[in-house]
Amino acid sequence: MDLNRVRPKIRPMKHEYWSCQIKKGHHRPKLPILIDHLKMIMHRYWIPLFTVFSCLVATLDASVGDSDPLYRACVGQCEKTGCVGERCFPHCKFSSDGVSIDGPWYMQEPLYMRWKQWDCQSDCRYNCMVERENQREALGDGPVKYHGKWPFKRVYGIQEPASVVFSALNLAMHFHGWLSFFILLYYKLPLKQDKKGYYEFATLWHIYGLFSLNSWFWSAVFHSRDVDLTEKLDYSSAVALLGYSLILAILRSFNVRDEAARVMVSAPLLAFVTTHILYLNFYKLDYGWNMKVCVLMAVAQLLIWGIWAGVSRHPSRLKLWVVVFVGGLAMLLEIYDFPPIYGYLDAHALWHAMTIPLTYIWWSFIRDDAKFQTTNLFKKFEIPFGQKTITLQRWDCK
After folding, report:
1. pLDDT, block means (10 residues), the chain with 398 residues
2. Per the CB 3.0–4.6 Å rule, which of 143, 159, 172, 345 could disulfide with 341?
3. Distance separating alpha carbons of residues 231 and 218, to the nearest angstrom
4. Distance separating the N- and C-terminal Cα atoms of the chain
5. 296 φ/ψ angles, rounded to the nearest 5 degrees
6. Distance separating alpha carbons of residues 357 and 118, to the nearest angstrom
């Protein structure tokens, strides 16, 4: 083959994208020229490539359920007609601000529904999910996630009724424990002349009680209605509670009493927890990273409490070991995820259920610790654990 006759037929371009070295009847492209050629392809076809890449990302990011064509078709049809099968929804006749499109003022969206933010899209997604899951169950298929959530059955508009009930019970148990701790300190144990208790960690436990009440309150709200605001409040409250609990575990186990030392120990952890909360709220709500952070803080404080109970030979170490051991097992439910049983009870709800008795035992340990510390300060008085009334005069101890 005469290469000198073939070469002139190649039309030169403005930028030379190919270069060949003619050696012994074959050619070999140079790497820099190949890179220039790829740049030319990206320059010419970046729009279709970007479209294909976006579709792939959307497909990978979506859950199995909401990627189902039958589910998508059902939702699309429902948003147009306002009906799924024979069931129709009045929300589809209202605009986004809750005002009726084709009715008088008294046909406005009910206030409790507007507060819960159930709208046409939410109702369509939920009922199409229920219908699609019924079809899958008839075929012998298991449940799948829709928009990152398991298919739960609503009860009076509540998304996850079991988790809401267990969160409310945890809230009640923490309030009971905190109140009983308060009564013990100020009505049963001796007080100083300024009417403050002798237990040096009382203020830290009061703050812990407030963090716990706040966390479980927003947990109940979030499981009642999952929107962006309630989700961030729930996650932020849980992280704040875990972070403060870790600080409290360090201060109590190492018996840190000096205020300056407490600040030095708490400052780095407070900075980390605050940064993490800001990251979740204003940068990216990364569920995987948040799970790792929460598990790390939870495991750290469980290990601290468990080891300290054995080393210190605390009189109520058995209660503490029960909380540590059962709490560690309950944490596995938070890590291991499975579909809700009968559409109500999933792993997260079971974790909430297991923490209810642990909360009672935990506050019982806190009260025992307050009695134990006070007893050490007053060796000449006997304050037996478990006694409901303390026969100790308030003003005899100064």
Report:
1. 46 44 45 54 50 41 71 84 79 55 47 58 84 86 82 85 96 98 93 87 97 97 89 96 97 94 96 97 92 95 96 94 94 82 88 95 97 80 45 39
2. 345
3. 9
4. 112
5. -60, -45
6. 34
